[in-house]
Amino acid sequence: MHRNNEKSKIYKIICELKNWLLNSGIQSMDDDFTKGSMRIYYNFKTDSYAFAYSELTGYAITSFLYINEFEPDPLLIERAKLAADYIINLAEKNIYGAIDDRFFYDSKTMRPWLFSFDNGICLNGLVNLYRYTNEKKYLEIAEKIANWLINNMQKPDGSFHAAYDYEKGKIIEDISAWSLHSEPHHAKIAIGLLNLYEITKNSLLKEKALKICDWALKKQQNNGRFPTFQKIENTQVHAHLYAAEALLYTGLKYQNKQYLKSSQKATEWILSLQFQNGAFPRQFIDGKVIPEESIYELIQTLRLWLLHDLFTGYKFENGDLNRAIKRLLQYQCRKGNPKMKNGLYFQMKENEITLPHINGGAPLAAIQVLIIYYQKLFNKFNFDLNLFI
Predict the structure, then answer these.
(1) Strand partners, 264
(2) Taking the complete model, does pTM exceed 0.90, yes or no?
């Protein structure tokens, strides 16, 4: 691809993804309490959404602010505020000041689970919006979420309980699911805690953030892989990459060479497993790569790859960047109604769409990857670490 043509193509896709996020309906504009929330995916076979997802809503705040840094647009700030209002509404209704994870549209019910990880993502979004607006309401809720996390969910060794069921009044521990027990991916909570620490100067936030990073570090294997099912040491790559992201962020913030080396090793491990089509595996089970991909692993690996290159100058031994970018672009839906066209599929097998889903979370992070790559093509780089999605 000729360099100027490549720049034009990437910029066009950035604009298409932004417009899809704002206009497709993936962010609820319904005139009810879900207004501002992000929906997990659009099912184009049933013309429906499954649930409003708080984790994605937290990501959306940061993503909209990041896109606005690239190209200012008042609508992005308006939508970030709507997303924050949804989160604040949930926090104010909950006796713990934390965020419920999802609202199911079919049953019209909220699942009564509070996830540590999801609350960490919402925390970071609120802190970023406070930085932009200086409106105290965002900071106040952020502090409540942070207090719940470090006082109720963090263990003495630095790890986090995965979730709390407030109807049953008990911690959820289920080792059969990577998201339901203490795992290295919880290190990403450190991003929100450290972002808040920079504002409040509450040293306990920094202490607790570094403690989860140190705990995650101990779980990493010599080849760079983070097991995400601790009892059997298999890996959900999506979660492995969360840990690598956290250690990159924290390593850069505090010039911690051990964290940076850990993130580099984690990235090198997944790069060594790149498929011929440019994508990366979703799972590593019983010592073997499972030949299945999704867009999440592709986005996360690309971002780690680019940020290591741009911030540290580290050059990886494995991987083909051009093939990975090409595969990412193949995930864009190019047909259908406005709810799906220009969005991103969740899962593919070569050129076959394996699920009828246009994903709600993928564009929030993919647009960041493409903006970083676009800036790299111009040799102009501007990245605020706190806007790490």
Answers:
(1) none
(2) yes
